[in-house]
From TrEMBL:
Top-rank lineage group of the source organism: Bacteria
Primary gene name: lipA
SUPFAM superfamilies hit by this protein: Radical SAM enzymes (SSF102114)
Cofactor info, note text: Binds 2 [4Fe-4S] clusters per subunit. One cluster is coordinated with 3 cysteines and an exchangeable S-adenosyl-L-methionine.
Name of the protein described by the UniProt record: Lipoyl synthase
Keyword presence, tRNA-binding: no
Enzyme class: transferase
Family of this protein: Belongs to the radical SAM superfamily. Lipoyl synthase family.
Amino acid sequence: MVKRTRLVQGEKLRGSEKVRRIPIKVIPSEKIPRKPDWIRVRVPATPRIEKIKKILRARDLSSVCEEATCPNLPECFSHGTATFMIMGDICTRRCPFCDVAHGKPNILDSNEPKNLALAIAEMELDYVVVTSVDRDDLKDSGAGHFAECIDAIRQQTPNVRLEILVPDFRGRMEVAIERLSSSAPDIFNHNLETVPRLYKKARPGANYEWSLALLKRYKEKNPTIMTKSGLMLGLGESNEEIKSVLKDLLENQVDMVTLGQYLQPSKDHLAVEKFVHPSEFESLGSYAEQLGFKTVASGPMVRSSYHADLQAKFLDQ
Protein backbone atom coordinates (compact mmCIF):
# COMPACT_ATOMS: atom_id res chain seq x y z
CA MET A 1 0.00 0.00 0.00
CA VAL A 2 1.32 3.44 -0.93
CA LYS A 3 1.52 5.75 2.08
CA ARG A 4 -0.09 9.17 1.72
CA THR A 5 2.15 12.19 2.14
CA ARG A 6 -0.45 14.94 1.71
CA LEU A 7 -4.10 15.24 2.59
CA VAL A 8 -6.54 15.98 -0.19
CA GLN A 9 -9.23 18.46 0.74
CA GLY A 10 -12.59 16.80 1.11
CA GLU A 11 -11.24 13.26 1.03
CA LYS A 12 -12.26 11.08 3.99
CA LEU A 13 -9.72 8.80 5.64
CA ARG A 14 -11.09 5.97 7.72
CA GLY A 15 -9.84 2.81 9.39
CA SER A 16 -6.11 2.14 9.13
CA GLU A 17 -5.54 5.24 6.98
CA LYS A 18 -7.02 7.43 9.70
CA VAL A 19 -5.01 6.07 12.64
CA ARG A 20 -1.72 5.41 10.83
CA ARG A 21 0.10 8.47 12.23
CA ILE A 22 -1.05 8.56 15.85
CA PRO A 23 1.53 8.24 18.71
CA ILE A 24 0.50 4.78 19.90
CA LYS A 25 0.06 2.26 17.11
CA VAL A 26 -3.34 0.60 16.92
CA ILE A 27 -2.98 -3.12 16.29
CA PRO A 28 -5.95 -4.23 14.18
CA SER A 29 -8.22 -6.72 15.88
CA GLU A 30 -8.59 -10.13 14.29
CA LYS A 31 -12.28 -9.85 14.98
CA ILE A 32 -14.60 -7.54 16.89
CA PRO A 33 -15.77 -9.25 20.08
CA ARG A 34 -19.37 -10.34 20.36
CA LYS A 35 -21.47 -7.88 22.33
CA PRO A 36 -23.20 -9.13 25.48
CA ASP A 37 -26.98 -9.21 25.51
CA TRP A 38 -27.30 -6.09 27.62
CA ILE A 39 -25.89 -3.78 24.92
CA ARG A 40 -27.58 -5.12 21.82
CA VAL A 41 -29.88 -2.75 19.99
CA ARG A 42 -33.25 -4.20 19.07
CA VAL A 43 -35.21 -1.16 17.94
CA PRO A 44 -36.77 -1.76 14.50
CA ALA A 45 -36.59 0.74 11.67
CA THR A 46 -39.59 3.06 11.32
CA PRO A 47 -40.79 5.59 8.73
CA ARG A 48 -39.68 8.33 11.14
CA ILE A 49 -36.05 7.32 10.64
CA GLU A 50 -36.29 7.85 6.89
CA LYS A 51 -38.07 11.16 7.41
CA ILE A 52 -35.27 12.46 9.63
CA LYS A 53 -32.62 11.31 7.15
CA LYS A 54 -34.46 12.97 4.25
CA ILE A 55 -34.60 16.28 6.12
CA LEU A 56 -30.89 16.06 6.90
CA ARG A 57 -30.01 15.33 3.27
CA ALA A 58 -32.35 18.02 1.92
CA ARG A 59 -30.72 20.64 4.16
CA ASP A 60 -27.20 19.31 3.44
CA LEU A 61 -26.65 18.55 7.13
CA SER A 62 -24.79 15.81 9.01
CA SER A 63 -25.73 14.00 12.20
CA VAL A 64 -23.17 12.55 14.56
CA CYS A 65 -25.64 9.69 14.94
CA GLU A 66 -24.80 8.58 11.40
CA GLU A 67 -21.18 9.71 11.07
CA ALA A 68 -20.04 8.11 14.35
CA THR A 69 -22.15 4.98 13.80
CA CYS A 70 -23.98 5.47 17.09
CA PRO A 71 -25.78 2.30 18.25
CA ASN A 72 -28.72 4.40 19.50
CA LEU A 73 -29.54 5.86 16.07
CA PRO A 74 -32.69 3.74 15.51
CA GLU A 75 -34.19 4.72 18.86
CA CYS A 76 -33.33 8.41 18.68
CA PHE A 77 -34.41 8.83 15.06
CA SER A 78 -37.59 6.87 15.73
CA HIS A 79 -38.44 9.38 18.47
CA GLY A 80 -37.75 12.26 16.08
CA THR A 81 -34.57 13.48 17.73
CA ALA A 82 -31.05 13.90 16.37
CA THR A 83 -27.68 15.31 17.34
CA PHE A 84 -26.55 17.62 14.56
CA MET A 85 -22.90 17.74 13.54
CA ILE A 86 -21.81 21.07 12.09
CA MET A 87 -18.73 22.23 10.16
CA GLY A 88 -18.67 19.20 7.88
CA ASP A 89 -18.07 15.51 8.40
CA ILE A 90 -14.26 15.48 8.23
CA CYS A 91 -12.28 15.89 11.46
CA THR A 92 -8.75 17.25 11.80
CA ARG A 93 -8.02 14.83 14.66
CA ARG A 94 -7.29 11.10 14.44
CA CYS A 95 -8.86 9.74 17.64
CA PRO A 96 -8.77 5.93 17.28
CA PHE A 97 -12.02 5.35 19.19
CA CYS A 98 -14.10 7.52 16.86
CA ASP A 99 -15.64 6.52 13.52
CA VAL A 100 -15.84 10.06 12.11
CA ALA A 101 -13.51 10.41 9.12
CA HIS A 102 -10.18 12.27 9.29
CA GLY A 103 -8.78 14.53 6.60
CA LYS A 104 -8.48 18.07 5.31
CA PRO A 105 -11.97 19.58 5.75
CA ASN A 106 -13.82 21.61 3.18
CA ILE A 107 -14.43 25.30 3.77
CA LEU A 108 -17.28 26.19 6.10
CA ASP A 109 -20.76 26.34 4.62
CA SER A 110 -22.09 29.84 5.28
CA ASN A 111 -25.63 28.57 4.76
CA GLU A 112 -25.32 25.88 7.43
CA PRO A 113 -26.65 27.96 10.38
CA LYS A 114 -29.80 28.85 8.45
CA ASN A 115 -30.30 25.31 7.12
CA LEU A 116 -29.78 23.87 10.59
CA ALA A 117 -32.34 26.19 12.11
CA LEU A 118 -34.88 25.41 9.38
CA ALA A 119 -34.36 21.66 9.79
CA ILE A 120 -34.94 21.91 13.55
CA ALA A 121 -38.14 23.83 12.95
CA GLU A 122 -39.24 21.32 10.30
CA MET A 123 -38.62 18.41 12.69
CA GLU A 124 -40.60 20.21 15.43
CA LEU A 125 -37.99 19.42 18.06
CA ASP A 126 -38.12 20.61 21.66
CA TYR A 127 -34.53 19.75 22.57
CA VAL A 128 -31.53 19.96 20.27
CA VAL A 129 -27.89 18.90 20.61
CA VAL A 130 -25.37 20.52 18.27
CA THR A 131 -21.86 19.10 18.08
CA SER A 132 -19.01 19.32 15.59
CA VAL A 133 -15.88 17.76 14.24
CA ASP A 134 -12.59 19.23 15.44
CA ARG A 135 -11.55 22.11 13.18
CA ASP A 136 -7.95 22.87 14.13
CA ASP A 137 -7.57 24.46 10.69
CA LEU A 138 -9.75 27.44 11.68
CA LYS A 139 -8.41 30.47 13.57
CA ASP A 140 -11.08 30.14 16.26
CA SER A 141 -11.47 26.33 15.96
CA GLY A 142 -15.01 26.96 14.80
CA ALA A 143 -16.35 28.84 17.84
CA GLY A 144 -17.74 31.60 15.66
CA HIS A 145 -19.62 29.13 13.49
CA PHE A 146 -21.05 27.48 16.60
CA ALA A 147 -22.28 30.90 17.73
CA GLU A 148 -23.86 31.64 14.35
CA CYS A 149 -25.73 28.32 14.53
CA ILE A 150 -26.96 29.13 18.04
CA ASP A 151 -28.18 32.56 16.92
CA ALA A 152 -29.99 31.12 13.89
CA ILE A 153 -31.70 28.45 16.01
CA ARG A 154 -32.76 31.01 18.63
CA GLN A 155 -34.24 33.21 15.93
CA GLN A 156 -36.11 30.40 14.17
CA THR A 157 -37.23 28.40 17.23
CA PRO A 158 -36.80 30.59 20.33
CA ASN A 159 -38.37 28.06 22.71
CA VAL A 160 -36.17 25.10 21.82
CA ARG A 161 -33.75 23.88 24.50
CA LEU A 162 -30.22 23.90 23.13
CA GLU A 163 -27.18 21.88 24.17
CA ILE A 164 -23.82 22.22 22.46
CA LEU A 165 -21.19 19.47 22.59
CA VAL A 166 -17.96 21.24 21.74
CA PRO A 167 -14.37 20.24 20.87
CA ASP A 168 -11.52 21.45 23.07
CA PHE A 169 -10.76 24.61 21.04
CA ARG A 170 -7.08 23.83 21.47
CA GLY A 171 -5.05 27.03 21.74
CA ARG A 172 -8.14 29.26 21.38
CA MET A 173 -9.91 28.75 24.69
CA GLU A 174 -10.52 32.37 25.68
CA VAL A 175 -11.72 33.36 22.22
CA ALA A 176 -14.12 30.41 22.16
CA ILE A 177 -15.45 31.05 25.65
CA GLU A 178 -16.08 34.72 24.87
CA ARG A 179 -17.91 33.93 21.64
CA LEU A 180 -20.01 31.16 23.18
CA SER A 181 -20.94 33.38 26.10
CA SER A 182 -22.44 36.13 23.96
CA SER A 183 -24.31 33.46 21.96
CA ALA A 184 -25.00 31.00 24.74
CA PRO A 185 -26.63 27.56 24.87
CA ASP A 186 -28.69 26.12 27.72
CA ILE A 187 -26.07 23.42 28.34
CA PHE A 188 -22.35 23.55 27.54
CA ASN A 189 -20.97 20.03 27.05
CA HIS A 190 -17.38 18.92 26.49
CA ASN A 191 -16.41 15.27 26.92
CA LEU A 192 -13.25 14.17 28.69
CA GLU A 193 -13.86 10.74 27.07
CA THR A 194 -11.39 8.77 29.20
CA VAL A 195 -8.99 8.85 32.15
CA PRO A 196 -5.71 10.83 32.00
CA ARG A 197 -3.51 7.72 31.69
CA LEU A 198 -5.20 6.74 28.42
CA TYR A 199 -5.17 10.13 26.72
CA LYS A 200 -2.14 9.51 24.53
CA LYS A 201 -3.70 6.23 23.42
CA ALA A 202 -7.30 7.41 22.92
CA ARG A 203 -7.20 11.20 22.46
CA PRO A 204 -3.96 12.09 20.63
CA GLY A 205 -3.77 15.85 20.22
CA ALA A 206 -5.92 16.50 23.29
CA ASN A 207 -4.93 17.32 26.86
CA TYR A 208 -6.80 16.29 30.01
CA GLU A 209 -5.99 19.41 32.02
CA TRP A 210 -6.89 21.66 29.09
CA SER A 211 -10.30 20.03 28.75
CA LEU A 212 -10.97 20.42 32.48
CA ALA A 213 -9.92 24.06 32.29
CA LEU A 214 -12.29 24.69 29.37
CA LEU A 215 -15.24 23.41 31.40
CA LYS A 216 -14.23 25.37 34.49
CA ARG A 217 -13.53 28.64 32.67
CA TYR A 218 -16.83 28.49 30.81
CA LYS A 219 -18.72 27.94 34.07
CA GLU A 220 -16.89 30.77 35.79
CA LYS A 221 -17.92 33.18 33.04
CA ASN A 222 -21.46 31.74 32.73
CA PRO A 223 -22.49 30.57 36.22
CA THR A 224 -26.17 30.11 35.27
CA ILE A 225 -25.44 27.77 32.33
CA MET A 226 -25.17 24.06 33.06
CA THR A 227 -21.89 22.34 32.16
CA LYS A 228 -21.68 18.67 31.23
CA SER A 229 -19.07 16.02 30.41
CA GLY A 230 -18.87 12.31 29.74
CA LEU A 231 -16.66 9.22 29.81
CA MET A 232 -16.66 6.05 27.73
CA LEU A 233 -15.70 2.94 29.68
CA GLY A 234 -14.04 -0.27 28.56
CA LEU A 235 -10.68 1.03 27.29
CA GLY A 236 -8.66 -0.39 30.18
CA GLU A 237 -9.37 2.18 32.87
CA SER A 238 -9.87 1.17 36.51
CA ASN A 239 -12.84 2.09 38.67
CA GLU A 240 -10.54 4.12 40.90
CA GLU A 241 -9.38 6.13 37.87
CA ILE A 242 -13.01 6.74 36.89
CA LYS A 243 -13.84 7.94 40.40
CA SER A 244 -10.83 10.26 40.33
CA VAL A 245 -12.03 11.80 37.07
CA LEU A 246 -15.52 12.26 38.51
CA LYS A 247 -13.99 14.14 41.44
CA ASP A 248 -11.97 16.29 39.04
CA LEU A 249 -15.12 17.15 37.08
CA LEU A 250 -17.01 18.17 40.19
CA GLU A 251 -14.08 20.22 41.46
CA ASN A 252 -14.07 22.03 38.12
CA GLN A 253 -17.74 22.97 38.51
CA VAL A 254 -19.27 20.46 36.07
CA ASP A 255 -22.99 19.93 36.77
CA MET A 256 -23.89 16.88 34.66
CA VAL A 257 -22.06 13.66 33.78
CA THR A 258 -22.60 10.65 31.51
CA LEU A 259 -20.94 7.22 31.64
CA GLY A 260 -21.33 4.75 28.78
CA GLN A 261 -19.73 1.68 27.18
CA TYR A 262 -17.13 2.12 24.45
CA LEU A 263 -17.98 0.06 21.36
CA GLN A 264 -15.34 -0.64 18.72
CA PRO A 265 -16.48 0.74 15.33
CA SER A 266 -14.14 -1.45 13.24
CA LYS A 267 -11.17 -3.81 13.48
CA ASP A 268 -8.85 -0.82 12.92
CA HIS A 269 -10.12 1.09 15.95
CA LEU A 270 -9.09 0.70 19.59
CA ALA A 271 -10.12 -2.67 20.94
CA VAL A 272 -12.67 -3.04 23.70
CA GLU A 273 -10.78 -4.13 26.79
CA LYS A 274 -13.90 -4.83 28.83
CA PHE A 275 -17.68 -4.90 28.52
CA VAL A 276 -18.67 -3.21 31.75
CA HIS A 277 -21.60 -4.94 33.44
CA PRO A 278 -24.77 -2.90 34.10
CA SER A 279 -24.27 -3.43 37.84
CA GLU A 280 -20.91 -1.63 37.64
CA PHE A 281 -22.49 1.24 35.75
CA GLU A 282 -25.17 1.43 38.43
CA SER A 283 -22.55 1.49 41.16
CA LEU A 284 -20.50 4.21 39.44
CA GLY A 285 -23.65 6.20 38.76
CA SER A 286 -24.59 6.04 42.44
CA TYR A 287 -21.09 7.18 43.36
CA ALA A 288 -21.39 10.17 41.01
CA GLU A 289 -24.77 11.08 42.48
CA GLN A 290 -23.35 10.92 46.00
CA LEU A 291 -20.54 13.24 44.95
CA GLY A 292 -23.15 15.86 44.10
CA PHE A 293 -23.68 16.07 40.33
CA LYS A 294 -27.04 17.59 39.39
CA THR A 295 -27.77 14.77 36.93
CA VAL A 296 -26.04 11.45 36.22
CA ALA A 297 -26.67 9.06 33.33
CA SER A 298 -24.74 5.81 33.68
CA GLY A 299 -25.33 2.65 31.65
CA PRO A 300 -23.96 0.53 28.79
CA MET A 301 -25.99 2.30 26.09
CA VAL A 302 -25.59 5.82 27.46
CA ARG A 303 -23.97 8.32 25.13
CA SER A 304 -23.32 12.01 25.74
CA SER A 305 -26.38 13.11 23.80
CA TYR A 306 -28.54 10.00 24.33
CA HIS A 307 -31.75 11.03 26.11
CA ALA A 308 -30.13 14.44 26.65
CA ASP A 309 -33.59 15.95 26.83
CA LEU A 310 -34.47 13.69 29.78
CA GLN A 311 -31.19 14.49 31.53
CA ALA A 312 -31.99 18.20 31.28
CA LYS A 313 -35.51 17.99 32.76
CA PHE A 314 -34.28 19.71 35.90
CA LEU A 315 -34.00 22.93 33.87
CA ASP A 316 -37.80 23.13 34.02
CA GLN A 317 -37.94 22.77 37.79
